Structure formats: C-alpha cells, structure tokens
Amino acid sequence: MAERQEQAAPDAVLTRIGQVVMLHHGGDREEARSRFLDLWAEIGQDGNPLHRCTLAHYLADTQDDPADELAWDLRALSAAEELCDGRGGDPPSVRGFFPSLHLNLAADYVKLGRAEAARSHLRAARSAAGDLADDGYGDGVRAAISRLELRLGEDGSPGGDSWGPPRQRPG
C-alpha cells in the first residue's frame, strides 16, 4: 500500500528552472539571465544532463549576442545527446527535445549569417520531428520548422540560397 502511495518527488532543480522561466516570460530578462547563470554554476558542467539541457536551452533565450545564444544552444544539444547515449538515464521523452534543439540552432546560424549550418540543423530538426507528439507543442515546433524551411528555401525550389521571402509561383 505504501508503495502505491509513493509519488515521484518533484525535481527541485527543474522546479527552480521553471520559476526563472516564468520570471523571463514576465519580462525580466536580465534577472532571469543572472539567476540562470547562478543555477549553471551550481549544477556545473558535469551535472545531470537533463538539468544542463533544460537550463542551457532556456539560458540561450536570454542572450543578447547571437554567438552566445549559439554557445548555450550547443550546450543544450550536447547534454541531450548524453541523455540519449544513456549517460543520463535516457528518459523516453528526450527524443522529443531534438526537433526544438536543432530548430533553435538553425535559427542561431541564420542570425549569424551561416546559411549552410542553418540548413543542416533544419534538416536534422525535420528528421527528428517524427518524435513529436500530436499536440500543441508538437504542432508549434513543426510549424516553426516549416516557416524556417520556407525562409531558407528548403522546400527544394530554385533560389534556395536567397534570404528573401520565398518566390511566388507563377499564376
């Protein structure tokens, strides 16, 4: 009976990350960045990969410099890969992280003017999108992938190297 009553204890670090995410979404970007960095110092570069992935993913969003944003998104991807390699427990849902992580990296590379790197991560995002659930989050990530594909010309149309809006088809 006691076993059935046991519930998984909430993860204190993920709870704290969630609290800082709410602060960031509330508009206090600088304070959120500061608190995220404090958490990063606390968990360290060798901490739980799920914590590092989550924290780096959100910390990237608080950066002013696109190169810094890229660095944090690369840390998030690296930690997610550790989870899938079994070094962090391999939670089944971690595969659902990859479409968003690669999409973020593609967007980072767009900001940095690195079209080929952006396209590479965009293809990885599209490839991994099959692991997304059919829910609002999954639909949103798939739609964002499609929008960036159009922007980068990943639809296979001529002019894929163009950074302008997609070409209109002749009427």
Structure description:
- Helix content is 64%, strand content 0%.
- With 171 residues, the chain is mostly helical.
- It is globular.
- Residues 1-7 and 155-171 have low confidence and may be disordered.
Any chance you could write out the topology, listing elements then pairs?
Blueprint: H1 2-5, H2 12-25, H3 29-43, H4 49-60, H5 66-84, H6 98-111, H7 115-128, H8 136-152
Helix pairs in contact: 2-3, 2-4, 3-4, 4-5, 5-6, 6-7, 6-8, 7-8
Average pLDDT taken over every residue: 84
Outline type: globular
User: Count of DSSP helices?
Assistant: 8
Number of E-type strands: 0
Category by helix and strand content = mainly alpha
Radius of gyration: 18 Å
Low-confidence stretches: 1-7, 155-171
- Fraction of residues in helices? 55-70%
Our estimate of the beta-strand percent is: under 5%
What is the N-to-C order of secondary-structure elements (H for helix, E for strand)?
HHHHHHHH
Sheet having the most strands: none
Head-to-tail CA distance between termini = 70 Å
